[in-house]
Predict the structure.
Amino acid sequence: MYIGIDLGTSGVKTILTDESGKVVDSASSSLTVAIPQPLWSEQNPEDWWTATCATLDELKQRNDLSVVKALGLAGQMHGATLLDKAGRVLRPAILWNDGRSEEQCRTLESTVTKARVITGNLVMPGFTAPKLLWVKENEPDIFKQVDKVLLPKDYLRYKLTGEFASDMSDSAGTSWLNTGERSWSKSMLMACGLSEKHMPTLYEGNEITGYLTAKTAKRWGMKAVPVVAGAGDNAAGAVGCGIVDAGQAMLSLGTSGVYFAVTNDYRSDPESAVHSFCHAVGHRWHLMSVMLSAASCLDWFAKNSGYSSVAGLFDDVVNNTRPDDPNTPFFLPYLTGERTPHNNPNAKAGFFGLTASTTRAHMAQAVVQGVSMALADGIDAVHGCGTQVDGISLIGGGVKSTYWRQLLADVSGIAMNYRKGGDVGPALGAARLAQLGVSPQTPVSDICPVPELVASYEPDSALKNYYDQRRQQFRELYFSLHSQF
């Protein structure tokens, strides 16, 4: 058996898999996000640990965990978790969707003129490095006490093993990694007032970073099993879906929306706001577009417009609108700013084109369409880097809707493939990386196969002109409002 733990923004999900990779059991525990000021987004790292313990406690009640061979970690990327010399948390973790550090991004890129060459990316407010520079400038007493900076999942590793370690895929999202060389960049760290001693040790995603402490092993009836490096949530989700070779791609619909395409070589195009990161398996990289508010837009609208659930929202859209309904307004889905392709933390959401004929169902349809068109913009940006793919695998909670799967194919013009287990996501990738870690002689493809295809959604050619025109109007609407954000 193997355990995969995924520390998400809205909760922790822990799964138990067998030797065949089948999910035997799972447990989840929810988390909340604090927004103490506009653009801020924070969580208490101790809440992550409490939630993780709750999921493992639940699994122990139903399973004999003494047979577990290894444990893997996946998690939300970019979060700044600051510890002092005693390993105590110094302040709430600043999360991936926090937009307070736009000024610090400009400072870093002017200080290190080759920052984009080194990291392969723009320095963005969501990344970790500008967050630390913000702390240095605005909370100097806290910054002076910083001994270690950890990414969210790596804080769980510290609590489980006592080790400070991270993987290449997650670390590539800090703006401190030389992505091509897969090593910490001294110049990028120095620009933040930090050095390698503040950083965790780097590993590939399937390498063993430490072992459960006697205390943690005893609590869950496990042996002192290995804990592998794991991966950032997106790379872990890719591993879970067998997206490990060049030409493979996936679209993840969670709180954020991510398009992920694998390459055998390091390539980048920072100006397009496409992310260039290391993959969770060695000698591979990936290009990625990130939309900050994807399924969260649907949650937001459902809660604020009287739907009992997102499922109820989709039912209303399916039953009371048609794909090319002329009463459907536009929705800009930038509730928390945007990354690809705009790199604008100040971007705002909004409806345009409301009339007396617009119903709640039309507005719901506009929200789903707006998210889909923004995702398609990100897909186009990645493909603009020269990457070609043969269909896109769908993962994440949002893929439960057959309506949305078809809409994504229609809007993007690319086939979408829904695969068995696609809603498990990063936790499955974490478990498979754990299995790889204790099976070094087994080919990656044997442990990380592409899951069985459940359904494929081809673009509807009859709607191509409609969505091409609507996407152009969508893009023009953003740029016409850009100066007002």
User: Anything to note?
Assistant: The chain has two domains: 2-241, 291-419+454-484.
